[in-house]
Amino acid sequence: MIHIATSHWKMSTWIDIQLGYIKEFLPGCKTYLSATQNVIDKHGSKFTFAADINRRESFVYDSVAGLRGSIDHCERLNGLFDVIELSSNSDDIVLFLDVDAFPIAPCTDKLHELLDSFEFVSICGCRESRLNPAFCACRVGSFKQIGASWRIGNYYYRLNDFGANRRVRLCDTGGGTAIEIRRLRKRWLQLHRCNRRNLHPVLFGIYGGLAYHNGMGLRSTKRLIPTTWIPRRNRYLLKRKRNGHLIFKVFNWIRQNRRFYRSLR
Fold first, then answer.
1. 185 DSSP assignment
2. Most buried one in 133, 141, 214, 238, CB count within 10 A?
3. pTM for the complete prediction?
4. Rounded to whole angstroms, how far apart are CA atoms 99 and 216?
């Protein structure tokens, strides 16, 4: 059995899109949603389980500015895993998804095949060194062995795609989890970006031919990284107005064409 955990928090924009691809490429799985009550009232009946649930953690990052959203993300995913654990076997698969991530190829047999050889499978953008919760699969027993918890922590992000040619240290969900995986020497497969057509060097990615990750939901006002890290000739890629227009243009494209990803392969 495959259990899918996703946290849509206050935003329900991607729910129907995500569930459509799950139904097509992961039929028969159980879906679990953590979100605010207004989202649950509208969409909760579409999931196997839906609640405003989280597992409160004593994160050492509570006082760090800008990480409140990451802390909430960890707590909600951990709360969903507690629910999944109650109704699953240790050999069952749990797949964690971001709001704007979903499968784009038949995954049921492929995930079982990959997890026979590896204990964790996750997408990897820009050669980052964290376990990315945007699309991460493992067996229930494997997740319990690393403490059954998503953790915030430092990780490295390679910026070659922006022409910066530098390794930047960041802090976000999955950074601390990756540290624990390496400490315990768990086998971990990273699914790398494989776009042949790139609308943006970080956003709108296809990973391992299995997953699509939009990258920023519909948040058009946040930069991915400070522009001071990027050569001046490439800074146009991070401008808010340009990214905002592109994000909504791609979102409308996805809503109108369920096979949009074929144009990116």
1. T
2. 133
3. 0.86
4. 9
Question: How far is it, in rounded angstroms, from Cα 219 to Cα 112?
Answer: 34
DSSP 52: S
Please identify which residue in the block is written with the tokens 């129907």.
16
DSSP string, 187-210: -EEEEEB--SS-SSSSSSEEETTT
For β-strands 188-192 and 2-9, DSSP reports them as unpaired
Tokens of 132: 């990315």
> Tens-digit pLDDT profile for the chain (265 aa)?
999 999 997 788 999 999 999 999 999 999 999 998 999 999 999 999 999 987 765 444 444 445 666 778 888 999 999 999 999 999 999 999 999 999 999 999 999 999 999 999 999 876 666 888 999 999 999 999 998 888 877 666 655 554 545 556 666 778 788 888 888 999 999 999 999 998 877 789 999 999 999 987 766 434 444 444 445 555 555 555 455 577 888 899 999 999 999 999 8
Nearest 5 degrees, angle CA 187-CA 189-CA 195?
A: 175
CATH superfamily of 2-191: Spore Coat Polysaccharide Biosynthesis Protein SpsA; Chain A (3.90.550.10)
Under 8 Å CB-to-CB from 82, ≥6 apart: which residues?
A: 55, 148
